Prior knowledge:
alpha+beta; 8-stranded mixed β-sheet; 15 strands; 35% helix
Amino acid sequence: MKITLLTDKDAKNWNTFMAENFPVVGAFLQTYEWGEFQKTLGRKVNRYFVSNGGAPICAFMLVEHPLPFGFKYLYSPRGPVLARDLKGKQAGEIFETIKSWAHKNFSHFVFVRLEPPIEELPPHTNSNGLVFPPYYIQPRYNLAINLSGKDEDILDSFHSSTRSNMARAKRRLVTVQEILKATVAVEQEFFKMSHDTADRNGGKNIYPGKTYFDSFFVNIPIISDKRDPEKLSLKIYLGLEKGEPAAMHSVLFFGTTATYLYGAGYRASLSSKVTSYLHWQAMQDAKKLGCLYYDLGGIDEDKWPSLTTFKRQFKGEEFSYLGNIDILLKPVVYFIYNLVRRLKKLN
């Protein structure tokens, strides 16, 4: 098997492979546009195809991240992505090829972290030199709504309390406005909402910083009523209660999936059920734009019990992924890194 570094001219081939081979959840993390966005955050990004004498059978992006004392590691968010028609043995050989290739080319890094969008390692995978951390970066469990039915059938499939929330939102004069340009005023409104949301979570801020969102809103194209399924795009929804800002959602579109990524809202508008109403509006738009699924994001009964309960009331399909796989390149440093990580978590 051969691993080839891609150049910028291969952008279309890259996204075509992702659109054709990625499963329902998380495709945006391996798109060409997401990689370019990561570069604006000061991260080095490279993309690779794996082939076996013909067309690519696997693709993965590696993003460089710093560690203390000048060390670094490489991370492939929701990657590598395997071709759909691969047989078990060949799939296992891919991981062995990547492992050997990483040792040969990246020995100056501490580890390479893979995060393949599969439930378990393929048969015949050699796990020697691989570590499976107990924690994960992207959610291991996601919930997505199948959009293949009629709008009324999708709505009827929701839990009765969710349908009641939709009705309440209408009674509270909740409306939805699409934001077609992420102006400074829009960002400021979102940050005010995010601070309010963090206060409700005991002051724990779950959002990236301002620099991240400055780049995110500029580098991911905002769309209205048309899209190219092989290009990553964004819709921003502003929920209004009686004409006043109440909540805001960012939804990414790629392939046949729309992904709810970031949302925030004001405490004073929680009773209006604006959040449920925004999701329903985004689902209807996603269906019109040719999407088959609306990904509500991660669920986890232990880490996010109330959020998981809320999402499950939409009665979607649940997806499970394997989690992190670390290829050890500097075992001693890796051990120290994880020890320090655990100690920090205890404090």
